[in-house]
Amino acid sequence: MAERSEHLRAYQREYQKEYQRKKHAKLKLEGICIKCCRELALQGIVYCAACQLYGKSPERKAKRDKRRADYAETGKCADCGKPRELMKFLKCEACREKQKARSVATRAALKDEVYAAYGGYKCKCCGYVGMKEAFQLDHINNDGAAQRKKYGYGCGGDFYRWLKKHGYPKDIQVLCANCNQIKNLCGGRCPCQEMKHHNEEIRDLWCSKEY
Q1: Coil vs helix vs strand at 199
Q2: Rounded-to-integer distance, Cα 69 and Cα 90, Å
Q3: How far apart are CA 50 and CA 211, in angstroms?
């Protein structure tokens, strides 16, 4: 009887999660806040102004910290409430894997959005188009270290979020790893452009037959 009750509770939890996922997906398409389900959500996020402010309030943070402390004492997962395998984590292994998968998917989507804002996965120097992993964001004015020190952003996802928040500044371009490294070694310029102009001059000379 106890085992049957546990299976029933597990089924109810999964049913509720699936219902919430479908409900949130519908609200996102309509641009409605997924918290209060009444007000219009702010641009770029899924909450309205009031719900976003409540989520960052000291009362909300205190309540969240208390819940986490209670879970830490009882040895339960902070997400699903099931017993944790390792006490040094606040979540069980299954919930940690889900969180990791969500983080990877979110970062990949953010990366695609940032690169799309700068012309997509295509090198501005040599024109290479191929694997996503072969591309890097380059500071056109060679002041990347100075900007990181001035604005305090890091690399990877931190840099992508900063670019999106500041409206994608125009002093950034997409380069392949080869051109970016060559530009760094050649004092801030990539010889691909010079070679391209040279090849165009040879082609024009050949076509005009003035050699």
Answers
A1: helix
A2: 9
A3: 73
What are φ and ψ of residue 99, in 5° steps?
-65, -40
Residue carrying the six token digits 């125009």: 170
pLDDT at 200: 52
Helix, strand, coil shares, percent, the chain, to 5? 60, 5, 35
SS3 173: strand
Alpha-carbon gap, residue 20 to 188, rounded angstroms = 51
* Residues in the chain, total: 211
Please state, in angstroms and rounded to a whole number, the distance separating the CA atoms of residues 97 and 22.
22
What tens digit of pLDDT does each residue of 141-173 get?
A: 888 888 888 877 777 888 888 888 888 989 899
Three-class SS state of 32: strand
Which residue's entry shows tokens 């020190």?
149
Distance CA 192, CA 127 (A): 10
Check residues 156 and 41 and name the one with the higher pLDDT.
Answer: 156
Whole-angstrom distance, CA of residue 202 vs CA of residue 209: 10
Measured between alpha carbons, how far is 124 from 118 in angstroms, rounded to an integer? 10
